[in-house]
Fold:
Amino acid sequence: MSYRADRLPSLPDRPLPPAPPVKIARAPRPWLTRAAGECAFPVDGEGWTTRACCNPCPGAVYCATHLARMFRPV
Structure:
């Protein structure tokens, strides 16, 4: 199956609300070294060098700031 961009439906242009600024409380660390209850949002790197936000987020995978950036209301 080939990918053809001209066959994709066009999306209506609508302005997105501005994303809240990211507040990083802790220095990012390698993704695999983060502890349970720390934000897993990747902030830089690629593959094994990916670093995660690591802000505290008990009971969630991402901190409140990154949740707001990823899931914007429609």
Remarks:
- The chain has a mean pLDDT of 78.
- Residues 25-74 form one domain.
